[in-house]
Each structure stands twice: as structure tokens, then as C-alpha cells.
From TrEMBL, chain A:
Gene3D superfamilies: P-loop containing nucleotide triphosphate hydrolases
Superkingdom to which the source organism belongs: Bacteria
Protein name, UniProt field: SCO2523 family variant P-loop protein
The species this protein was found in: Microtetraspora fusca
InterPro entries in alphabetical order: P-loop_NTPase, ParA/MinD_ATPase
Keywords of the record: ATP-binding, Nucleotide-binding
Transmembrane segments: none
Length: 304, 311
């Protein structure tokens, strides 16, 4: 299955959340891979703590593959090549976890040629043979990479795909997420141009809220009653706004709580971070785990 | 004499094995010619030979610039309606002219690549065996995969494979036996990223049977590799019996009956297979895995019977 991760704005935690989903899915026993399609700033290597590819690889990554310079993009076995001690031993029963990094100094594409599209279709077909889940991390906003993903999936009727739209739980982000999907030149409009059926495509898109502060969260214990009331009111307004913009509960796949570790360390959160060093919250890991299950759970993706 | 090739092996992307009647359609995509099918002891279908013209560098262990021009001979095959292989090889020969000739010259020598200048067999053999996927030299594996991709994209396949599996790569090099320099007849090495290398020393020179042998070895290496992964993932002893059985079931449904080493090979290759059976011991490892799979399923059946009170 192909899963495309996209966000309208930067700083939503799209990459760090998708990386953690991939990691959780691997722990749950699936073979997973992560494709860095953020050609302008390939940083997935840093999230997985693979220092040789922290800013993209020099050994022929995604960019070089699409340009036709190499036949197979460079692949990194994360279990074997990560610098983080705690991740290096693949737990029994866990699946493959492979990173396809971008190229160092690659740059965004300015067009999608027929040849690039053919290469994209071939890559997706081959990876589908080998991996249960291929997560494609697209850059923020409308990009040629997103166009290419829409065009390629339109040509692969037998390959299941899903889209995750990441947004923060704020007024601006909710409106932006709506625009990215339903606005002019949004995903749906562009998808129809490439031959997708609008309704079917819409059924394959779900939203993920990031950095969510729940009004009843333990962190808010010390607040004054007036502050709590105000926060509750804000949250209610946001829920109403989200519902009006089609970004509400029914189209949401999951939400990730605000966790300082994610903001400052943009890395995989291991169980060790929760249990022994206790720098991360158990709720955060539970949210990743839940998302990793829902991504492949058909009942979470029934038509709205 | 220097012959080198690469075989890539993977699971045909279909929910079940495809019947013989579909093989023609699936493999016939590649050309108008007929697909050859043999039925005993296992259904084996092979596409007509395909030629790819090349004019490029050949990998050299000494990093010399060696230019080769000619054609690569490739074919795709399906064994047991289940396992797909793409196989390409070239015979390397020294060019008589010092410049590129018209393509008719090369087309008249299918599967021969001519190199300009001096030809050092060990240098080219080592260079090819060690070449990575991302240099700018002739990449026979990519040629093989292109034909596999064409087969996998066939509309006759439903693309609902019963399990995920990675393609394996077997890179092989065959050289003639040299008087006074006795090397091993066969050397098989497991490398990183599912790359295997096979070095052959052939006393009787090259025949197309050598390609059959390499493909047969690649097929069985893929079966063993794939079954090992399935058994490892089943977490025998840790997961519940029902989970273990569910994970092992695809192996029973789709893989166990395909093991038939050297079934279609010329008798002359029996000693080579025997050498591989001694070390690394392909069939020994396979049999032990198969026994383990069957025992696990038997134990689960007994447990279920006991639960149902019928035993």
C-alpha cells in the first residue's frame, strides 16, 4: 500500500509523525519503507538518525533516480545503519524498515516529464512487491512531487493508496488543510485532471491533527479557571470550524498530542524514551501506534 | 572465454499460481513469438529471447575504462506459475575493429559484447562480480528487471500477491579452465542487499545450459531466502499458535511444492549442484525449514482438536 503524507504549511510535524508511523508499523511486523520526496530539503535521514544521509545521500537518491542518472535509488536499512543504539537491534518479529533518501543538494523539480512519471510508476510497482507499506513524504504545499504521485497512482489501478493530510490544530492550519484538498488546484482538482474519480479520491484522504493540546490534558492542571474556560471555548470554536471545512472528526484518522520531545528533537520516539529515560509521553507513542494500525485498517477508511 | 549474467527472481504478483494457459499471455507480451512451456516435473514457461543493444563501459576491477559494444540476451520465465525470473547475460569477446561497426554486425552475434583494446578476463570478471548498482557501467540486473516489470504489469495478473517478498539478485561469471591454474569449479557467495555472486570455471566451455543452471540456482536461492524470512517472522515460540500458523500458511500454499533442484538441467551440471548441496547445503536447510513449518502446523492442529474436545 502507498501512503502519501502531505501538509499545506511547513512545521506541521509531517515528516517526524510519518517516520514514527513507519517505525511503529515495522514494530507491528510489517515490511515498511519511507521515501523522501521532499526533493528541496531531504532530511528524513536525520529523523531516523542515519548520519550518512542526514541531509540526503550522495550515493544516488530519489532525485537522481527521477533524473535517470541511476537505475535503482540508494536504499538504507534503518535497523542496520541508524546511529541510535536503541534502534539498532531489530526486535524479533519486526519487519524490514528501509529509507530511500533524497539527494544532497537535489532541489525541487520544475516539471514532471513523461519519463519521470514512468520511473515513478515503476518504482511504486516494485516497492509494492516488497513492502506492505510505502510511505511517501511529500514536501509542504502544492509540489510537482504531489502532482507526480497523483498521476502515478492514476496509472496503477491495482495498487491501493491513501493520503494523509497533516495540519496543526489552529484556525489557519484548518483552513489551509481544507484548501490543500478542496481548493483550486487542490489535491482533488489536480487528481481529477490526472484521471482520478473525485469522490473515490476523496474517500482515500484523511486528516491527521498534530501538536494537539487537549483542554483536559494533565499539563493544564495549573491553569486558572478563566483560562481553562477560555481554552475550552477556543477548542469548541476550532471543532466547529473544522466541521464546516470538512476537516472534522469523521474525516480525521488520528491526532498527535503536543509533546516537547517532538518539537525539539524531531526523531523517532522509542519505547525506551517513554519507559526508561521518560523524556517522551506515553500518550504520544500510543497515538503513533494507533495511527500505524488505522492506516491499514479498512474500517477506518470506509466511505464517508 | 568470459560470460557474465545476472538473474533476478521474485514472486509473480498474482493471488494464486497462474495456469499454464495464462503463461502465454503473461510472457508473450515481450514479443510476437511463442512462449516455450515444459510441463514435467514442474510447469516452466519461458519467453522468447530478447536483445538489448548496448554501447557502454564495462566494470573493471582495476577501474580501467573498458568500452563494450554489442547485445545483451535476456529472457523472462515463470516457474510453477508462481516465481518470476528475469535473466540476462553476455559473452565478452575482443573486437577486431578499433571502432564501432554497424548494428547489423552486432545483431548477427546475439548476446556477444565486443570490447575495444586489450581484454583482461580476470579484471573484467572481478569488476562485474563486485560492481555496485549505482555506477555508470553495464548493469545486466537492470536489463533483467525491465523484463520482469513488463511481466508484472500484465493486465492478466490481479496484483494481489499472498505475501510481500524482495527480489533477489544472482550475479554470475563463468570463465574457462586454464591449464596450470586450478580454481574451484564453483563458488557461491551471499552478499548484502540480497546480492549473490556465483563464479564458475567451466572445463567444457560455455553452452546455453550454463544459463539454465544459473537460473535454477537463483530460483532455489530465492525460495530458501523467502521461506527463511517467513519462518523468522512467524516468531515460533513467542507468538500464539494461531498467529504462527497464520504466518506460515502462505509458505504451505505457495512455496513448499516448488523445490526441485536441477530438475530441468543437463546431467553435466549434476556435479555442480552436488557441490552446492555439500556446501552451503541448500536442500538440507530447505528440508529442515519445511519440517519445521509442517510440525508447527501439526501442533496447532492438535491443539485445536483438543480445544474442540475431539481428541
Amino acid at each position: 500500500m502507498l501512503v502519501f503524507a502531505i501538509s499545506d504549511k511547513g512545521g506541521t510535524g509531517r515528516s517526524v509523525t510519518s517516520s514514527n508511523i513507519v517505525y511503529r508499523r515495522a514494530l507491528q511486523g510489517s515490511d515498511v519503507c519511507y521515501l523522501d520526496f521532499d526533493f528541496g530539503s531531504p532530511t528524513a535521514g536525520a529523523i531516523f538518525s542515519v548520519s550518512s544521509a542526514a541531509r540526503g545521500t550522495i550515493q544516488g537518491g530519489m532525485h537522481g533516480y527521477f533524473e535517470g542518472r541511476i537505475a535503482d535509488p540508494h536504499r538504507i536499512d534503518i535497523w542496520a545503519e541508524t546511529d541510535r543504539e536503541g534502534l539498532r537491534a531489530k526486535p524479533p518479529g519486526a519487519g524490514q524498515m528501509v529509507l530511500f533518501p533524497g539527494d544532497e543538494g537535489g532541489g525541487e523539480f520544475s516539471t514532471v516529464s513523461e519519463e519521470m512519471l514512468r520511473r515513478c510508476v515503476r518504482l511504486f510497482t516494485r516497492l509494492e512487491e516488497e513492502f506492505d507499506l510505502c510511505l511517501v513524504d511529500l514536501s509542504a504545499g502544492r509540489s510537482f512531487a504531489a502532482q507526480m504521485a497523483l498521476a502515478a497512482t492514476a496509472r496503477l489501478p491495482g495498487v491501493p493508496f491513501r493520503w494523509l493530510v497533516f495540519h496543526r490544530w489552529t484556525r489557519q492550519h484548518i483552513i489551509a488543510a481544507h484548501g490543500l484538498v478542496r481548493g483550486r488546484q487542490g489535491l482533488l482538482a489536480a487528481g481529477v485532471e490526472h484521471g482520478h474519480d473525485e469522490e473515490t479520491l476523496a474517500d482515500h484522504i484523511r486528516f491527521v491533527r498534530t501538536a494537539v493540546l487537549e483542554p483536559d490534558a494533565a499539563e493544564l492542571e495549573g491553569l486558572r479557571e478563566t483560562q481553562k474556560a477560555w481554552l475550552n471555548e477556543c477548542d469548541r470554536e476550532l471543532r466547529e470550524l473544522a466541521r464546516r471545512y470538512g476537516v472534522g472528526r469523521t474525516s480525521m484518522l488520528g491526532k498527535i498530542p503536543l509533546d516537547p520531545v517532538l518539537q525539539w528533537r524531531e526523531q523517532l520516539i522509542s519505547d525506551e524514551d517513554v519507559l526508561s529515560s521518560q523524556i517522551a509521553n506515553a500518550e504520544t507513542v500510543a497515538a503513533f501506534d494507533d495511527l500505524a494500525k488505522k492506516i491499514v485498517d479498512d474500517s477506518a477508511w470506509e466511505a464517508l | 572465454m568470459l560470460v557474465m549474467g545476472e538473474v533476478r527472481t521474485g514472486l509473480l504478483q498474482n493471488s494464486g499460481e497462474i495456469p499454464e494457459s495464462l503463461c502465454q499471455g503473461v510472457l508473450g507480451l515481450l514479443s510476437g513469438e511463442r512462449v516455450r512451456i515444459s510441463r514435467r516435473p514442474i510447469v516452466y514457461a519461458v519467453s522468447p529471447d530478447q536483445l538489448t543493444g548496448v554501447d557502454c563501459r564495462l566494470a573493471s576491477a582495476a577501474r580501467a575504462r573498458v568500452r563494450g559494444v554489442g547485445t545483451v540476451l535476456s529472457r523472462a520465465s515463470v516457474t510453477g506459475g508462481r516465481v518470476l525470473q528475469g535473466s540476462s547475460h553476455i559473452q565478452v569477446a575482443r573486437a577486431e575493429a578499433d571502432h564501432r561497426l554497424s548494428w547489423s554486425h552486432y545483431l548477427a552475434r546475439p548476446g556477444v559484447v565486443e570490447v575495444f583494446g586489450k581484454m583482461r578476463v580476470p579484471d573484467l570478471a572481478d569488476g562485474f562480480a563486485d560492481s555496485g548498482a549505482w555506477n555508470d557501467c553495464l548493469d545486466l540486473g537492470s536489463v533483467s528487471e525491465r523484463f520482469m516489470d513488463a511481466v508484472q504489469a500484465s493486465p492478466l495478473l490481479d496484483r494481489k500477491a499472498p505475501f510481500r517478498s524482495a527480489r533477489t539478485r544472482l550475479r554470475w561469471v563463468a570463465v574457462a579452465e586454464e591449464p596450470g591454474r586450478e580454481g574451484p569449479g564453483i563458488r557461491f557467495t551471499l552478499g548484502r542487499d540480497r546480492v549473490r555472486t556465483l563464479r564458475l570455471v567451466l572445463p567444457d566451455g560455455f553452452t546455453p545450459d550454463v544459463v539454465d543452471f544459473c537460473e535454477d540456482l537463483a530460483l532455489h536461492d530465492w525460495l530458501l531466502t523467502t521461506l527463511l524470512v517467513i519462518v523468522e517472522r512467524a516468531r515460533v515460540g513467542t507468538a500464539t499458535r494461531a498467529e504462527v500458523t497464520a504466518k506460515l500458511a502462505p509458505a504451505v500454499d505457495h512455496l513448499l511444492h516448488l523445490w526441485m533442484p536441477a530438475a530441468r538441467l543437463d546431467d553435466g551440471f549434476a556435479p555442480l549442484w552436488e557441490a552446492l548441496e555439500r556446501r552451503p547445503g541448500f536442500s538440507r536447510q530447505w528440508q529442515s525449514l519445511v519440517a519445521r513449518v509442517r510440525d508447527q502446523i501439526a501442533i496447532n492442529t492438535l491443539a485445536l482438536l483438543r480445544e474442540a474436545g475431539g481428541w
